[in-house]
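Field log, afternoon session.

UNIT: design team B
ACTIVITY: writing a sequence onto a fixed backbone
BACKBONE:
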């Protein structure tokens, strides 16, 4: 046995790679290859998978979610990454949940607190208004998206503001705020990294918490190369984040006004609370002298003590982390500054009056239902062609436009996982099912689907006819030519093989073995 080498004499490379008698060494043309040659792939540029784009939107025509989902699924790198990334969030959420023994109690408290507040909305909003005004805040009320945009524009005009930095807000997406501001010549700069990526790529957010989650790092590198001049071949996350910071920071420092949303509004104190992980809402609110907060009226909670329940649930449900990095209470304007709060209805009062759907207003926008949904994970948020995607979107979107979003409630397996993870106990899958019934009543379901469902209903309600149909289908599947089974009428068979029919149906087996008795 040879004596061990002193550290100073040890080869720099791992000994196996240099050993002359290494039987596993890669040999090409009688010459042993060194480590780099042996393990590297040839330097041939690989074509990148193009990022699938979202649903095609044609005015008020129904969104074809299935068509956009098919394009997303046809991009396997994106689909796999999206599915795994969101499932990872779901698993982290589960781990955090199991560390809180009183988790179910918190969910019940949060749900009860929201239901109480929603049924006393006028009282608590009035209380908030009085307290916020006494804190020196200007309060505005907006009936709809157009009024919201006009109010904010008016405030900016009064201050001669030409640029606005803002933190992520689904409400402003709902209001079409950025396009409106562009039309009146005001520059809007998103400060949340994911949202800024989406803004630069001229895309909507695909997820309510992680807006660019559907993009690969290489997609982001392409967007930044195009818009802020980074190296298109460098998709290192630190490089990209730093480049974005360098490009945006001067715009933030020079902005005339700042805008935030709010996660919670506390009636008792007249304050509102914003939770972020990047601290960007704090920048938006405190760098310029003028701070405008756009807030949906359902965000109100009665007292500060209720906040603790929601704060414990929010980040754990959203990202599987115990708390967001920044949880800021805004109570009044900074010294020498001005604070405006715009309380927005935009269809919320109407939803509150909908017996089957009003509890969707309890939503705290954590995204947990999206992270767990098998349809959402595999089709991407942009396939829904709406501000809100995933299970909660299937309930909210048709309240804005039942015709345009009439296909969405069918983009669900109704497995109930969304309801199980929802921190405020919204019965999401039941509301999705209720929307399906409602859409049939409103004649918003295509004739072919309606006819097929009616026929299936007739068949399933007649056991003898059902058994005869199954037996006939088994024979047909075994003998029919392939083109008869696999054609455009068979949506199931377009992406997969129809399973081979069993030799014996379960009913026949049961008859033979159990005499039909249970
Ligand atoms: S419906 Fe529930 S799970 Fe989905 S985003 Fe809202 S609060 Fe979260």
């Amino acid at each position: 046995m040879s004596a061990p080498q002193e550290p100073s004499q040890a080869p720099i490379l791992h000994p196996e790679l240099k050993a002359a008698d290494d039987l596993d060494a890669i040999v090409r043309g009688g010459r042993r290859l060194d480590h780099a040659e042996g393990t590297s792939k040839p330097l041939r540029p690989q074509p990148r998978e193009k990022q699938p784009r979202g649903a095609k939107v044609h005015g008020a025509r129904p969104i074809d979610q299935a068509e956009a989902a098919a394009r997303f699924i046809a991009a396997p790198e994106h689909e796999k990454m999206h599915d795994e990334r969101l499932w990872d969030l779901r698993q982290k959420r589960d781990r955090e949940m199991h560390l809180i023994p009183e988790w179910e109690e918190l969910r019940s408290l949060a749900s009860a607190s929201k239901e109480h507040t929603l049924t006393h909305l006028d009282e608590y909003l009035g209380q908030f208004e009085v307290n916020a005004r006494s804190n020196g805040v200007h309060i505005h009320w907006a009936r709809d998206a157009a009024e919201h945009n006009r109010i904010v524009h008016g405030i900016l005009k009064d201050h001669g503001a030409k640029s606005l930095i803002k933190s992520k807000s689904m409400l402003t997406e709902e209001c079409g705020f950025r396009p409106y501001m562009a039309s009146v010549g005001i520059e809007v700069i998103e400060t949340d990294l994911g949202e800024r990526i989406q803004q630069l790529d001229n895309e909507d957010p695909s997820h309510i918490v992680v807006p660019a989650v559907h993009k690969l790092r290489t997609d982001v590198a392409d967007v930044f190369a195009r818009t802020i001049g980074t190296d298109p071949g460098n998709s290192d996350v630190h490089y990209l984040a730093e480049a974005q910071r360098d490009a945006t920071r001067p715009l933030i420092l020079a902005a005339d006004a700042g805008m935030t949303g709010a996660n919670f509004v506390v009636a008792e104190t007249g304050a509102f609370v914003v939770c972020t992980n990047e601290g960007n809402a704090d920048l938006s609110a405190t760098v310029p002298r003028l701070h405008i907060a756009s807030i949906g009226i359902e965000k109100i909670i009665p007292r500060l003590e209720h906040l603790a329940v929601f704060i414990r649930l929010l980040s754990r449900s959203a990202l599987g982390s115990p708390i967001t990095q920044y949880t800021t209470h805004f109570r009044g304007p900074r010294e020498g500054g001005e604070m405006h709060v715009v309380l927005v209805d935009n269809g919320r009062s109407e939803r509150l009056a909908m017996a089957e759907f009003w509890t969707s207003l309890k939503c705290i926008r954590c995204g947990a239902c999206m992270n767990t949904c098998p349809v959402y994970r595999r089709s991407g948020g942009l396939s829904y062609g709406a501000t809100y995607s995933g299970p909660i979107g299937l309930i909210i979107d048709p309240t804005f436009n039942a015709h345009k979003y009439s296909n969405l409630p069918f983009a669900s397996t109704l497995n109930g996982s969304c309801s199980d993870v929802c921190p405020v106990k919204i019965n999401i899958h039941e509301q999705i099912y209720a929307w399906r019934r409602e859409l049939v009543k409103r004649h918003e379901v295509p004739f072919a689907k309606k006819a097929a469902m009616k026929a299936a209903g007739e068949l399933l309600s007649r056991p003898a006819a059902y058994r005869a149909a199954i037996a006939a289908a088994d024979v047909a599947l075994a003998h029919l030519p392939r083109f008869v089974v696999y054609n455009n009428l068979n949506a199931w068979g377009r992406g997969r093989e129809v399973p081979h029919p069993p030799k014996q149906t379960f009913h026949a087996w049961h008859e033979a073995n159990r005499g039909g008795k249970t």
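LOG NOTE: Residues 1-19, 34-40 have pLDDT under 50 and may be disordered.
NEXT ACTIVITY: expression trials, pending approval
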